[in-house]
Amino acid sequence: MKKGKRTTIYDIAAKLGITASSVSRALNNSNQVNEKTKELIMKTADELNYKRNILASNLRKGHSKTIGVVVPRINQNFFANVIAGIEEATYQKGYNLIICQSGESHDKEIQCVNTLINQDVDCIVISVSADGSDYQHLQNVIDHGIQLIQFDRVAEELETLKVINDNEQASYEAVSHLIESGYKRIALLEGPQNLSIFKQRKVGYLRALKAYNIGVIDELIVENAWTKELGAEGTRKLLSLPQPPDAIFASTSDFSALGVLEVANAMRIKVPAELGVCGYANESFSEITSPSITTIDQFSIYMGQTVANLYFQEKGNTDTATKPKIISIKPELIIRASTAKNGKS
Amino acid sequence: MKKGKRTTIYDIAAKLGITASSVSRALNNSNQVNEKTKELIMKTADELNYKRNILASNLRKGHSKTIGVVVPRINQNFFANVIAGIEEATYQKGYNLIICQSGESHDKEIQCVNTLINQDVDCIVISVSADGSDYQHLQNVIDHGIQLIQFDRVAEELETLKVINDNEQASYEAVSHLIESGYKRIALLEGPQNLSIFKQRKVGYLRALKAYNIGVIDELIVENAWTKELGAEGTRKLLSLPQPPDAIFASTSDFSALGVLEVANAMRIKVPAELGVCGYANESFSEITSPSITTIDQFSIYMGQTVANLYFQEKGNTDTATKPKIISIKPELIIRASTAKNGKS
DNA sequence: TTTGAAATTGCAATCGATTGCGTAATTTTT
DNA sequence: AAAAATTACGCAATCGATTGCAATTTCAAA
Question: Which residues are in the HTH lacI-type domain (chains A, B) (predicted)?
């Protein structure tokens, strides 16, 4: 077999003087075929370098053993980790992954989802992009009878399986930690509020302030500061205030926290003595900055595995109640140097 | 359409009292069908929320419009970037990506490749794992008439399309830079020599020493130091030598260089004054360590795009000569603080 | 009005594997 | 050894879309 057509079950059947049915059954290890014949078939299949045509198989079977994944960016630590986790768990079960990136564009996200529907994937796993709050395309997935699992950035109003982080609680703990470390005027760098994860983090921030009887100061809350650059910009404004904050919670990401660090450094403001900094996501770099950044670990790989397992688990379920299951993973506060106001950590 | 079957071209045909042939043609925008009918078909297709079944289509057409990618780890910056680049370029052309990770295991790599062959992918893009030097599985890909493109970590003996970095030259320039910066005893942390990329980097190192008339000192060359931990371990040994090096080229990765930095720090050896450090790969963290790390940028996203474009370009080619094309991308030395011996950068 | 070419549409086979149903072959049971 | 029960295998339809070829319709030129 060089350039020629690939071998099919018919080729094997012809060579052995039997039917394709038997070959198919043998290849699927059906017990409806004689052991001897089965062995013979296996052997010739091997000789002919036969490889099953999955397209045909899936078409007939009505499923694709393929899971589609849509994320804003593949090359972002958190998402890459989640995908790695999903891949690991699904590969063992013989499933394949089709990966798409929306690039934070709602339009491309819609395109991706439609492509995946076309591909006849058995399940679509998605973390929605930041712009857009119309989720017709996701409803469409459900209407097509395709399992939909949202993770991290989810459209809350949609009743689907979800795997999320307890953002509010994590945020609450982070801010509590800042307060208990002795910081008094704590600023918040927040992300786009149409994403629930950012909304929840803000709620956690507010809840912590309340719990410690600290008033909310509007000018310490900076909107839309979710990249390193925007974080830096927000920090410059904050630190130029008549009464600047003595801590900044970059609730959007460690990148944003990195921006904070750079600005503080440029302004010769000492972290953590004069300014406490807390990030989010435990990016690999956060432990090697100086000072290292206190942050929140989201167990991203585990999250991916959880998504995969959730799918397999629900797959077995006979449509009993179709209760939208939500799995919440508790993130962990990682305390490092950037919040050690009094030298203690 | 709720739980029911998905709509097919037959449903559309039935509703319109025509044949599936016409529907198919209309959907493929063939000029063999009347404009009016075409419009009508399009409209009803839309109304019925029709989505083409790609499996059936591909089965018939004999290709899958799918590209398989095998990398050691998805969640490693370099690979995530390459994949992002491939995705970007292929998505536009309506191709899908199936991603697998070998986890640096030769066995799993073989499995992955076979799965992809089964999946009937049109092309397999691979960066081989570190262990194993048997490439029968790759030959198998070729024998199945599937386009094979290797990138970065390639099996040189296999005549396939390749997209690589000019590792030797980059390495040569890095070491030259160290020498010109005033460092005299330059150590090398090298990676598994069965991977050509690491071999080439070593050659570049040796060539630079020779060019500047510096003798090779065997004890300054540390084998298999390609993780942060192994890099640190190697560094400890190097720095405990009677005559320790005054610079270390961590040719394997920035992670390894990070290990160097940490050990130097722990031993209170000043970088870059007493020890120059150069990494490889321009990981995002390399610019925010202190000091920031001189490293080599591999243009990973661009590399991915190049792989994709190479595929599309070759696809058109009628089997003229089947010359194995090799595209070499020139990496760029990024000079930062960790090699500024005399304060100059 | 007739004729011929061009434009549309239908028919039926095909891509490769799977599977329900029926029949033939084999084994087991009396 | 005959009847009953398995077991093994073949037949043919099916999954949904595509496409070469044939048939029909349309339209303009003669």
Answer: 7-61
Residues A320 and A270 in one domain: no
Quote the pLDDT of residue A3. Answer: 42
Is A238 contained in some domain? yes
* Rounded CA separation A47/A43 (Å): 6
* pLDDT on residue A2: 37
The minimal CB distance from A51 to the residues B1, B100, B117 is found for: B117
Q: Which domain holds residue A268?
A: 167-298+333-339
Q: Helix, strand, coil proportions of chain B in percent (round to 5)?
A: 45, 15, 40
Distance from CA of B315 to the nearest CA of A (A): 15
Rounded distance, CA A130 to CA A47, Å? 53
Cβ atoms of B165 and B197 within 8 Å: the answer is yes
For B119-144, what is each residue's pLDDT tens digit?
889 999 999 998 777 899 999 898 88
pLDDT at residue A117 in the model:
85
CA closest to D10 C1', residue: A19
Which one, of B198, B192, B171, B185, lies nearest residue B278 by Cα?
A: B171
Cβ separation of A101 and B87 shorter than 8 Å?
yes
Domains contained in chain A, number: 3
CATH assignment at residue B25: 1.10.260
Does A131 or A303 have the greater pLDDT score?
A: A303
| Co-location of A46 and A191 in the same domain | no
Nucleotides of strand C lying closer than 7 angstroms to a protein CB: 7-12, 14-20
Q: Are residues B174 and B293 in the same domain?
A: yes
In a domain, A106, yes or no: yes
Chain B residues in contact with A112 by the CB 8 A cut-off are 91
Q: Flag whether A3 is in a domain.
A: no
What's the pLDDT score for residue B3? Answer: 42
Chain A closest-CA separation from residue B209 CA (Å):
32
Model pLDDT, residue B145: 84
What is the pLDDT at residue B2?
Answer: 37
A37 plus A114 within the same structural domain? no
Helix segments in chain B, DSSP class H: 9-16, 20-27, 35-47, 54-61, 77-92, 106-118, 136-143, 167-180, 196-211, 228-239, 254-266, 300-316
**Model confidence at A322: pLDDT above 80:** no
- For residues B24 and B53, is the Cβ–Cβ distance under 8 A? no
Confidence bin at A5 (pLDDT 50/70/90): low
Q: Which residues of A41-53 are buried (b: 16+ CB within 10 A; e: fewer)?
A: bbebbeeeebbbb
Residue B68, domain CATH:
3.40.50.2300
Q: CB within 7 A of strand D: which residues qualify?
A: A 17-22, 31-35, 37, 56, 59-60, 62; B 5-6, 8-10, 20-21, 24-25, 27-28, 50, 52-53, 56-57, 59-61
Bases on strand D under 7 Å from any protein CB: 7-12, 14-20
Distance from CA of A325 to the nearest CA of B (A): 20
* Identity of the residue in B52, B55, B76 whose CB atom sits nearest the CB atom of A59: B55
- Quick check: A255 pLDDT over 80? yes
- Nearest beta carbon to residue A73 from set B51, B84, B117: B84
**pLDDT tens figures, B268-280:** 999 999 999 999 9
pLDDT band at B321 (very low <50, low <70, confident <90, very high): low
What would the pLDDT profile of A225-244 be if each residue is shown by its tens digit? 988 999 999 999 999 999 99
Q: Would you place residue A73 in the very low, low, confident or very high pLDDT band (cuts 50, 70, 90)?
A: very high
Same domain, B250 and B105: no
Selecting from A83, A100, A285 the residue whose C-beta is nearest the C-beta of B284 gives A285
pLDDT of amino acid A344: 54
Token pair 């320039």 in the structure block, residue: B173
From the CA of A34, how many Å to the nearest CA of chain B?
26
Instruction: Name the packing angle between helices B9-16 and B35-47 (round to 10°).
Output: 120
